[in-house]
Design goal:
The chain is mostly helical. Helix content is about 75%, strand content about 0%. The chain has one domain: Amino acid/polyamine transporter I (Up-down Bundle). The chain contains 18 helices and two strands.
Length: about 450
């Protein structure tokens, strides 16, 4: 079966453009909102070390597999997996792996947009000086007032979704590429400024570094290891079709291994820098490191409210959060857009309206789970909690497992060798061993842990 030589959506103008875009897909709320609080909940340094190992042994090999599948298929994840399976003489069942990725991105964006909307609200609150001298009860009250008001949450959720779809509607070069050329440099500049600000706390900066980089394995549980692996998938945007569809726009001569390593390093660096910016402020104000999801919206505003220049730097922090969320959001919806354009013969703008409205509507469940619907539970979790757990801990690792099996066992060695085009044969052998044995084994062990067999 012949493969399309070029994506109908166009291609990135350069390798650098792809790295920026894929890094934008990877860098998001997972790095700046989620990584610091799950690190705090799981004891710091030991969790960080396990997370880094997961990135190296699982994240990078799976990212390489996703990109090679996307570039070789040159279509949306569903069509790419279907055509590549046929090319290898295998069952068309594999197209459902593509569907799983599209669905994962759709589900994640539905609640991601609500959290991003909260960050947008906090940009204006912080710059206006609302948190100056605020107490713990005051910060909690401000956050509660926001999330307990479904109309206000809905408004910010809507604004963020509109911003996202406007970018996506403009296409690969006109929308995705142009946006990340601005967003990613701005994000790094703000983050480095915040780390410099945290460094001014002196001994607390050193305390924050020790918490992040000095492992204490007595504080790490089996659940923490599961969380680290799930977050490695979440933060690199693996298993949700985003990297695969971005790979379908990648020029043929670009080295998949080099861009995968560059993206993973940049993404991990952002997460670590976020921790370096946040934890010194937490220690300086004697706040709890294990504050959970409220670390960003309830704990940090107290720190900013009691520090010199806190109004400005706090506002810049939440602006950073919005930029990070925005760069990821445009990638989360792209697989669904690509499928609609390729399979339903609709224009890109109409596809954006359809997919954007569906995602926005599902997001209402998350909006309501913070207020009038907080008592609506399934398996003991709110709708937001359920979507977060289902995607980060089940769907993304499962998607990664199946991608590893597809690239390592379903595709012929010659096919992957040709697409990766790694100059050093030894490096290809290492990747193939990881994707065939190490990555699947690690994910299976985690799933056994989930269902409580040991």
């Amino acid at each position: 079966m012949s493969r399309p030589a070029k994506s109908i959506h166009g291609q990135w103008s350069s390798r650098w453009a792809f790295i920026l875009a894929a890094t934008g897909a990877a860098v998001g709320l997972g790095n700046i909102w989620k990584f610091p609080y799950i690190t705090g909940e799981n004891g710091g340094g030991a969790f960080v070390l396990v997370y880094l190992l997961c990135i190296a042994a699982i994240g990078i090999p799976v990212m390489m597999a996703e990109i090679l599948i996307g570039r070789r298929g040159r279509q949306n994840p569903v069509n790419s997996l279907h055509s590549l399976a046929a090319e290898e003489g295998k069952n068309s069942f594999w197209k459902y792996l593509g569907w799983s990725g599209v669905l994962s991105g759709f589900l994640i964006l539905s609640y991601y947009s609500v959290i991003a909307g909260q960050a947008m609200a906090y940009v204006f609150r912080t710059f206006s000086g609302v948190f100056e001298g605020v107490t713990a009860d005051g910060a909690k009250s401000i956050y509660s007032a926001l999330i307990n008001d479904p109309e206000r949450l809905l408004a910010w959720h809507t604004v963020f979704m509109v911003f996202t779809m406007v970018v996506v509607a403009r296409g690969v070069k006109g929308g995705l590429e142009k946006s990340v050329r601005f967003l990613m440099p701005a994000l790094f500049a703000i983050l480095l400024m915040l780390v410099g600000y945290a460094a001014s706390t002196g001994e607390y900066f050193a305390q924050g570094l020790e918490f992040l980089f000095k492992p204490d394995f007595s504080k790490l549980s089996g659940e923490g290891v599961l969380t680290a692996m799930g977050h490695a998938f979440f933060t690199l945007s693996l298993g949700m079709g985003a990297i695969m569809v971005y790979g379908s726009y990648l020029p043929q001569k670009t080295s998949i291994m080099k861009v995968s390593i560059a993206i993973s390093i940049a993404d991990t660096l952002v997460a670590l820098l976020a921790g370096m910016a946040i934890f010194p402020l937490v220690f300086a104000n004697e706040l709890a490191t294990g504050a959970g999801p409220g670390l960003i919206f309830e704990t940090l505003p107290i720190a900013f409210g009691h520090m010199v220049g806190g109004t400005f730097f706090g506002g810049m922090f939440f602006l950073l959060l919005v930029f990070a969320a925005w760069s990821s959001a445009i990638s989360l919806i792209e697989p669904a857009i690509a499928w609609l354009v390729e399979n339903k013969d609709v224009s890109r703008r109409r596809a954006c309206v359809i997919a954007g409205f569906a995602t926005w509507a599902l997001g209402l469940l998350t909006v309501l789970s913070f207020n009038v619907g907080k008592s609506w539970t399934l398996f003991g979790q709110t709708m937001f909690g359920l979507l977060d757990y289902l995607t980060a801990n089940i769907m993304l690792p499962l998607g990664g497992l199946l991608i590893a099996i597809f690239a390592g066992w379903i595709m012929k060695q010659q096919s992957t060798e040709d697409e990766l085009a790694i100059e050093q044969p030894r490096l290809y052998i290492i990747w193939r061993a990881l994707i065939r044995y190490v990555t699947p084994a690690a994910i299976v062990i985690v799933f056994i842990k989930i269902i409580g067999l040991f």
